[in-house]
Write a structure and sequence with these properties.
CATH architecture of the domain at 45-158 and 224-338 in chain A: 3-Layer(aba) Sandwich
Distance between the termini of chain B: 16 Å
Largest sheet of chain A: 5 strands, parallel
Number of strands of chain A: 5
CATH class of the domain at 45-158 and 224-338 in chain A: Alpha Beta
Strand order of the largest sheet of chain A: 2-1-3-4-5
Helix content of chain A: 40-55%
Number of domains of chain B: 2
Largest interface: A-B, 50 and 43 residues
Order of helices and strands of chain A: HHEHHEHEHHHHHHHHHHEHEH
Structural class of chain B: mainly alpha
Shape of chain A: globular
CATH superfamily of the domain at 45-158 and 224-338 in chain A: SGNH hydrolase
Radius of gyration of chain A: 23 Å
Shape of chain B: globular
Oligomer: heterodimer
Amino acid sequence: MRFFLKYLALLLLSLAGLTWYIPFHYDMEYPQPAGPRFTDEIRKIHARIIEENHVEVVLVGDSTLDRSVDETLFSEVIGQRAHMIRIPASSTALWYLVLKNILIGETTNPPDTMILMFRDTILTLPDYHVSGGRETEIDEYATANEDFVVQTAYLNFMNPLEIAAEQYLPLYGARRRITDSIESYSRALLPGLFLSCGVECSARTFGDVFINIENINPDFSQGVLMGEEENLYTSRALNFDAQIGRSFLPELIRLARESGINLIFVHARTLTFPNLESQPDGLAEYKSKLFAYLAQNNVAVLDYSFDPRLPPEYFADPLHMNAQGQAVFSRILGEDIRNLIPR
Amino acid sequence: MNFTEYNFLLFFLIVFSAYWLLKRTAWQNLLLLVAGFVFYGWVHPWYALLLGLSIAVDYFIALGIAGDRAHSGRLTALSVLFNVGVLAFFKYGNIIAPGLADAFHQFGWEADFLLKQVILPAGLSFYTLKKLAYILDVSRGILEPLRDPLAFGLFISFFPQITAGPIDRAQTLIPQIQSARVWKADHFHRAWPLIVMGFFKKIVIANTLAAVVDRVFAYQHPTRFMLLAAGFTFAIQVLADFSAYTDLARGLARLLGFETSKNFNAPYLSLTPTEFWNRWHITLSTWLRDYIFFPLRRALLRARAPGWMSDTLPPIVTMLLSGIWHGAGWTYALWGGLFGVLIVVYQWLGMGGAWKPANRFHAFIAWLVMLFILTALFLIFRAPSLEWLGAAWTTGATLGTRNELAAALINLSVTLCFMLPLAIKHLLDRAFRPDSNLHAIYYVAATLVMFVYLNAATPDFIYFRF
C-alpha cells in the first residue's frame, strides 16, 4: 500500500506542478475549452476570386471533385463563371465553413449557386476527416468563434473523461504541442550527430522523404484511402435517422436558403460500389432516405452513382477519375447543371 | 473491444464492481462468462456465437474422450480437425478460396460464394490453441475433463486473455476458476504497475514506432539501410505492443483475483534462437514445444529415424507451424521456417539450448549477431510480401541520397529514444526492489507521458491479427 501511495502522491504533486507550469509556458487559458481552438485568420483567396471574377457558380468538394471536374470546361458548358474550391480529404465541417465564412461571410456578392459534391454517407458524418492534421486546414476557413463546428464535429464524439481532461488537465490539453516537440527532438538525435542535420532539418527531411506523395507506394496510398473510406459504411454511418440531426446538413441547407444561394448536391460516381448490384442494402436504404430528405427540403440532387456513361476505364483509382473521365464528366455535369441554375 | 478504449474502461468498471459484490464463486464465474461473451461479441455478435459453439463442441468431446477411452483417439482427432479446420477456414480461407473456386469452375461448377471475404475473428488463433491443449491433455489422461460447463466456458472465454493470450493451460487457470476468490488489497498492488506499464508501452512506445515503421514500408524505393532500420524499429514496436497487451491482460486478471502467465522475459537480450523462443511469447513457445516439438521428436525416435532427422525436423516443423499460425502469407512461413533452420544451425555449431558463452566478449558478440538476425527476421515478418521485399532489397541503394540516409537515421533515432524507457525499466528491475523510490518515479513519469500521448482512438494491438 505504501508503494502505491508513494506513487499517487508523487503523481498528484507532479500533475499539480504541471497544471501550474504548462498554461504559463504555452500561454494557455485555464480551464481551457475542450476541442480544437481556431484562429480568426481566414484564407481569403477564394473570396477574392469570387469577387473579382463575379463568379456565379461555386463547386465545393474534396479530391473526387478535383479529379472529376475541369473548371474551365465546366464553365464553358454552363455558360456561367464557375470557381472550384477543392480541398483534398475535406468533409462537411469544412464545407459548412466554406459556405458560412467564405461564400456568405467574405463576399459582398455571394455566388448564385453552390454545388456540393459528396459520396455515400459523408453528408451526415460530421466527424469524418476532422482530426489530426486536418484541424490546421479547418482553421484556415474557421473564425475564432465556431462553437457549432466544435460541438458538432468534435465534442459530440469525445467521451466525458476526455472533455474533462482537455479542460482541466493542461498536460492533456497541450498534448499536441508536447508530443510535437518530443518527436522533433527524438528525430533529430542521430541526423544531428552524423549529418549535422538538426531539428528543423530533420523535420524538413522527414517531410520531403516520407510525406511527399510522389515517394509513397501507390498500393499503400490506395490501401490507406480505402481504409479511410470504410468509415463511411459503418452501421453508425449508414443510420440516416440517427445521424441527420447531429450532422451539418440541416445547417448547410438553412444557411444557403437564408442567404439566397441555390444549393445543389451532386453524388459523385466512385468504384467503391461500381454498380447497383454491388451496393449494400444498408447503403441503398440510406441513400433513399437522404434523397427523400433533400427533396422534402426542396434541395436539388444529381446522382451519378451508377451512371453508365462513366465506365471504370475513366478512373485512375476507385475514387478518382483520370483525365479522360474528367473531360467526359465535366461536360455531363455541366449539361445537367445548366438546367438547374437561374439564367 | 480494445483494452485502451473508453468503452472498455466503463465495461471493466461495471464488471469489476459487480464481480466483487458477488460473494459466491459460481455467481462470479457466471458473471465473468457473460462478460467474456459480451467483450468478445462487442464488434460482431456472431463472434460470440462462434465462440459459444466452439466451446460446446470441445466440452462434449472432452467428456466423450474421458467416458470412452477405447475411442478417445477418434474423438481427439475429431476435435483437432474441428479446431484446425475452423482456424484454417477463417485464417487461410481468403487465400485458398480463389484457387478452389477456379478448380470448381474447371468442372463447370460455379462457386462464386467462395470468393466472399472472410473476416478472421480476433483471438480465434489464441483460444483454438487453448482448447487444443485441453483436449490433448484430456486425451493423454493427464487432465480430467471439466464436468462444469460454466467453468470450461470461462476457461476459454476469460476476457482478459481471449483476444491475444497469454495462452494459459487448463492446469493453471481451471484450479483458480474453481477456487473461492475474495478481494484482497494485494490484487490491486500487484495489478497497477502492470496496467501502468501496459498503457505506457502501447500508447507511447508502440503507437509512435508504428507510425515510423509504416512510413518506410509505404516508401516507393526504400534503401537497404532504411529497411534494416525499419526491421529494428518493428522488432521494438512488436515487443512493446504485444508485451503491453500481456501486461494489461495480466493486470486485469489480477484485479479479478487471477494469476496468469508471463509472456516475455527480455527477449532481445537472447544470445541464441533457442534462448529467444524461451523468452519471447513464452506461452506460445511452450505450447509449440509440448504439443508439436516433443511429440514429433518422440515419434521420430520411436520410428528409429536417422539422428540428423530427429535433430533437424522437429525444430524446423515447429517453427514453420509457428510462422503459419501467425498469418496467411509467405512472409510468416519464411519467418518461422528460418527460425527453425537457425535453431538447427546453432545446434550444429554447439550453441544449442544449454550453451553458455565463455566470457563477456563472446556473450556480447553472440548478442550482437542475434540482434542482427532478429532485425532481419522481423523485417521479413513485417514486409507486405516477399516479392516486395526482394525487389526493394535487390533494386534499392545501400544508403541512398543524403535525404534518404537522414530519413533512415531519423527512423533509428526515434527508435532509440522510445526504446530507452524499456531499457531503463529493465535495469531498474535488475538493480532495485520493485517497490523502490526509483520505480515509483519511473511509474509517475510513465503515467505523465501517457497522458500526453493519450488519444481517443488507439490502433488495435498487433497480435489481434494473428
